[in-house]
Amino acid sequence: MNERLQQWRENLTEFSNRFSKKQKMMIGAIAAFLIISATLAIYIASRPNYVPLFSGNLTEVDVAQIKTELDAKGYANYQIQGNSVLVPEKDKYNLAADLTAKGVPKGDGVRLDIFSQNIGMGMTDRQFDVIERDAMQTQLADLLKMVDGVRNAKVTLVMPQETVFARENGETASASIVVDVEPGKQLGPQQINALYNLVSKSVPNLPKDKIAIMNQYSEMLEMADEGDNAYSLDQYEKQRKIKKDIETDIQKNLQNMLGTILGRDKVFVYTYVKLNFDKTQREEQLVEPVDKENNEGIIISAEKIQETYSGKGASAGGTAGTGETQIPGYPGATGGENVESEKVEDRVNREVNRIKQNIVGQPYKIEDISISVGVEPPNANDPASLTREVQANIQQIIGNVVRTSLSSQGTEFTQQQINQRINVFAQAFNGKQEVVVEGNNWTLIIVSSIAGLLLIVAVVAFIVVRRRRNQEEQAVAEAAETKPFEVPELQYAEEGEEVIVRKQLEKLAGEKPEEFVNLLRTWLADE
């Protein structure tokens, strides 16, 4: 056994002697790193991952209830961090289901389910009112927590005392609320109004002016006036943006069109529009004939009545009276002549087209528009160089745009009214940057060309020299690498048998170290 241990030690020593000191240090560092990494990986993999047992914001009372229940079950593998109870992830769902079935956490208030549990017949009205108010406060606080940005809430209600007597001015309830707003968030006017409406609708006989709400920083959250919200700043910004977009579109289109004709830097367009943001709605009931050519409706019923009379005496209706007691022109009572009469009556009922229209007028209609166009004349110093014909053409183009923009009003504008909304004027543009071009400066051109040519030649020469130098350095390096390193052989004074054996052993140890080790083992075993 000792010989085997000695042999292993010699083998290990022989194996380690093959490496230099630097290599041994590197191997040791790598081995230590692998051992430490494996140890940490095993530790992290075997360590349980703790997660919150219940999500949300737990109060100190909730944490105490959960801790008491876990201790009663004999479960000790939990951690408490702040208002959270952490348990291993594999046990979370089973524990949460068991605690929820037992009604844990119950919170720090009384909820409405107490009325179906421990309310006995011996409870007084005073006790019942206190429990009912506490339950309403708890339920209202839970309701407020569901609002985005509210982390927790505390509610205190003051309920009016009920009486059997009628009062002219009935007492109202009041509420004081403290909301814990999440860090980094701020409740907007709409959210604050929602809180007031939520509390007012949840408690009977509670007007909004009897509600006080503040945050955890003792800042009052006042309810915004609903009348001010009807025309808020957002609505104003929206209408202003729409107006600006319409003006920009008209101005850009005219600028591109006139700039193409007169030159990009020769024309400037400014547009101002007046919009109607009212959304109108009207109802129209129209009647139209079916036959529009004859202006007649369709016949739905027709009746023709014809009466004839022939005889002596008065006809049906009598004879026109001419006596002293009779009224001229009206039938009389008697008549002695032969009378023939005929009466024809046509009754026709016609139906027409009845049209009922509900017309909704969309907003954003252009009520008025004004366009001003500045044109730089061909001779900037002479405004008269811009001919009247060119100005008239520009005014006609813009007039078509104005007429089309105002066509939605349904009013026909005269040419004079259109011209009043257009202004075309000739003016030199002093704001634009003038570029001065020097003519026939051949000296500068020649000098620049020569300098550029010299720069190109210098760059090419530098690249060629650098490439040759790199090739020479590479050739020298390759020659140095290919030159073998010759080690002079040891010269011995004698060439005896021992010297020959020694040389053979050295050659065997250098070329085949494993066979050399086996040979040594054989010699040691024989001895």
Automatic annotation (TrEMBL):
GO terms for biological process: bacterial-type flagellum-dependent cell motility. It holds the Pfam family YscJ_FliF. Its main location: other. Residues 312-346 are annotated as: Disordered. It comes from the Bacteria. The keyword Transferase does not apply. InterPro entries: AMP-bd_C_sf, Flag_M-ring_C, FlgMring_FliF, FliF_N_dom, YscJ/FliF. Keywords: Bacterial flagellum, Cell membrane, Cell projection, Cilium, Flagellum, Membrane, Transmembrane, Transmembrane helix. GO terms for cellular component: bacterial-type flagellum basal body, MS ring; plasma membrane. The keyword Cell membrane applies. Residues 258-401 form the Flagellar M-ring C-terminal domain. The chain crosses the membrane at residues 25-45, 442-465. Residues 46-222 form the Flagellar M-ring N-terminal domain. Belongs to the FliF family. The M ring may be actively involved in energy transduction. This is Flagellar M-ring protein.
